[in-house]
Amino acid sequence: MLKLRRDVWKVVPAALRSYVRKASGSVGGMLGLGGLGSDRAVYQRPGVEKLPREVRQSIDTLYELAKADAEDAVFVVAEMEMYGKYGTPVDVDSAFAHYLQLSELSGNATAQYMVGFFYATGLGSVEQRNGYSLLYTALAAMQGYGPAEATLAFRYASGVGAAMSCAEAMVHYQAVARSAMRHYLLGPPLGRHMPGYRAWLSDDRGGVYGVRTGPYSLHKTVTRTSFNELIEFHLFNARSGDTKACLTLADLYYHGHRFARQDFGKTRKYLAEITGRLFTRQGELRKGLTQAEASTAAQAAGMMGIMSWRGEGLAADTAVALRWLNIGASMGHATSLNALGMMYQSGVQVTKDTERATELFKQAAEKQHQGGQVNYALAVMEKTPEVAMTNFKAAAENGHILAHYYVAGFHSTAMAGGGGEASCRMAVASYRFVAEKADWLHSPIPDAIDAAMRGDLEAATLGYMRAAEMGYDVGQLNAALLLEQAGGGALFASAGDYERQALVYWTRAANQNVADARTKQGDAYYFGRGVQRSYEKAAAAYTLAARTEASGLAMWSLGWMYEHGIGVGQNFHLAKRWYDQSLEANDAGRLAAHASLARLCLRYLWAWARGRDVGEGPLFFAPRPVSRDEEERAARPAAADTAADHWEQGAVEDDADDDSNREEVDSGGSLTESLFFIVLLLGAAWMFLPLR
């Protein structure tokens, strides 16, 4: 990160320095990207006139310095213009000019990365050029700039703006992952805390389309109010002496949450509540505890030991840590076993004993503790590499980043030894996991979350767009949602550009199996949002969403298109099939499904009465389909029904018969309800049933 030169700050009045410190907490807090100079004085910028006179003069001085090619001033000016900092308005076109100027002045990696970002997204009046974007991003990546490395890796892995190349993607993801692992291991004992909660903005509305609109949507919206109500419930139980509630609160504040910042003080407070109730003053477990209380006590002891060793909430005290970890380990607590093993491995407060450490790691690994599996694998890797690899893979499956890093290393070595494309893809998957989960050094998501929570949607959109360009699925989803909502802000030249970029991110999110993103892609093609309208492409997207995600909305949309012959050939039988499947997939949409079935019935009857081709066989009054099992049973010879056959298969067949009867009842119920809607809708046909 650049630092402002002293000669620059000698010219800038003290008023701006004071204002910056109040706004960001430190002078260094304002430095995140890079920039260029403008001929316009700050007084000519709308909205700036409300700032204090000294601040306006100081900002104007920065512009003069930027005009004179003072690199650090260019850097700060671009920051202010890009994110509207310190009261200045957002001006992405001027910010782009400043980033371009700085990249030409000094080859600044941040500036080069941002120029590539502009060319990739077409922000402001910048023409979207993938070639230029790839060039500037590659120049920044050559200097080891993390965000550029991650962006370039995603492009090669997905074929976005570059020819797909697994080998190139692996090189860049490996560089990001190596930097992340170095940062992780240089942290406190047992490694750094993983980056905080990744907020899916769709959860605020219950899902991309709302509450109960699909198999992946929520039953209610997630808000700070509902979260606080849940916290109050646990607080009430904790005050009533419920140690399980105390442990829940301690774990919440230890790891942090979107609506609850990490707070080691509160964590220790609730752990002290547990230890005070379940342990004696001598640190011994009280007698007569239930199994649940003993489990809570073991977890509390492990957390107390780790926090004491790492110095979280209080000064580090390895003696206290050893005492608590011994208690947790004696009770079979896996985390305590793993941490105690690391104490023996490093000789912290105990005599160094590698064999004892390995035994503790093995015990933790046998309890499926990811850290124990990784440490045990490292301990036995030279003697029994097969056992080590088994443990690495098991830990990786449970999301341990160090395990993923080693697994990726094995696959990259195998690729170099002739493993081919398959080994390369597996290496890329694991390196990418590390790069996206252990992203302390390069992720724009924390700043985007903060901006969204304080209501600065433009800054949040820019942050999530940067994350989307790096390949984060949460960035692609959140950026698409915010771009859909904006439509007329200061980031793009027109509302059409917002829709175009939103479709880009919906498509990329859909390719990463984000729920409802493929349905959103279909909506964009159906309504012509950000792209030329294409009913055929909309139908293709809906079909893929219906088959791979069981999306009730996509099924209903396909039913509508088959009913009206839009984008596909008109087919009443296929329309009914998709409406029926929509009803089965999403019970909350039964009103719309039954109304559509009623309408379809009337259209079918009207077309039949007019002599049009409505397909073979009746639509609503067809006999119940016979399953393959029923056909086989009907064709089975009577001699095959032996007593042994009855005992071995009778129960299963009885269940099948029950299911068949249940299907008949459901089918009848569906028909009755649909006929009811037919009668109801006939009375209001003049409102929404144009029988054309």
UniProtKB/TrEMBL annotation:
Signal peptide: none annotated. Residues 631-667 are annotated as: Disordered. One of its GO terms (cellular component) is endoplasmic reticulum membrane. InterPro entries: Sel1-like (IPR006597), Sel1_AlgK (IPR050767), TPR-like_helical_dom_sf (IPR011990). PANTHER family: SEL-1-LIKE PROTEIN, SEL1L ADAPTOR SUBUNIT OF ERAD E3 UBIQUITIN LIGASE. Belongs to the sel-1 family. This is ERAD-associated protein. The lineage of its organism: Eukaryota, Fungi, Fungi incertae sedis, Zoopagomycota, Kickxellomycotina.
